[in-house]
Amino acid sequence: MNKRLLSAITIIVAFLAVAFIVTSKPNTQEKKSTYVPTVGILQLVTHPALDQIHHGIVAGLKSQGYSGKKIKIDYQNAQADQSNLKTMSQKFANENADLTIGIATPAALSLAKTADGNNPVILAGITDPAGSGLVKTTQRPGNNVTGVSGDSPLQQHLDVVQQVVPKAKTLGIIYTTSDHGGEYNAKNMEKLAKKAGYTVKMYTISTTNDMQQVAETMASQVDVVYAPQDNGVASAMKTLINVTNQEKIPVIPAVDTMVKDGGVATVSVSQYDIGYQAGVMAGQVLKGKNTATYPVKTITKGEMTINLKQAKLLGINLPASMVKEAETKGEVFK
């Protein structure tokens, strides 16, 4: 084989090799469009309000194009067990989840600690994100955490107390000592109620197992009970109602699902909407939005929710204006 022929063969082989590499390598855009992100959702415990947030998150992600085969969602429920929170958060880290979402403050805290400033964490239904140390400020979170706060409309809740039980003098407030959001809401309501002239008595539970005994004491000492947005109290709501019903003491809770479980009335922020907005934010972050400069969204607008069956059981005539508002713009349980 002469040198000229050998050179020609070498050039052809080199050309074919380069062509193969160029045509077989996926371009960046193609790789980006086929990537399926993994999202870990960690819920503190099963109760109707948190379940609604979960459903809202999935719908919010779907609105951003993340559903079906375009996303892998790993949903975990810790059932109020702190060790489960830690184990499940680590599971997300081990599977390299692109983003995690915490439903309720303890779940969000566990995810943030595990992420350690790296992968993004979205909050869903967190009452006091800055006070709990999850973000620097709600307007400028400053790190890998942002999300949606469901701050309770406390003044509106107090207005409901005054309308439902106008002659009440002593208000009992119950919250869970390990629930930062519950304590935050309870103590802020305490200030408002004292300013309005009520004698306020505070009661606490450590776990839902405490509810029966604490509720029995409380029901004998107060005219009306306020149950704040608190995961422990919400989980034990039916136990609380069983006790207060025996003493004919009305309970004014913070959210609609607690009214359904036996509360008389409230102005409720939609837990589904909180979850939906968190899902939308998660979708935006997956698309590249920076959590550090993505302000926490706070939802405070609520709707009147009443339980006519419970009011009748306790011999309470709800104001006609309240009933009309619930029937036209809110929610009525019968």
UniProtKB/TrEMBL annotation:
CDD domains cross-referenced by the UniProt entry: PBP1_ABC_unchar_transporter
A Pfam family per the record: ABC_sub_bind
Transmembrane segments: none
Coiled coil: none
Name used for this protein in its record: Peptide ABC transporter substrate-binding protein
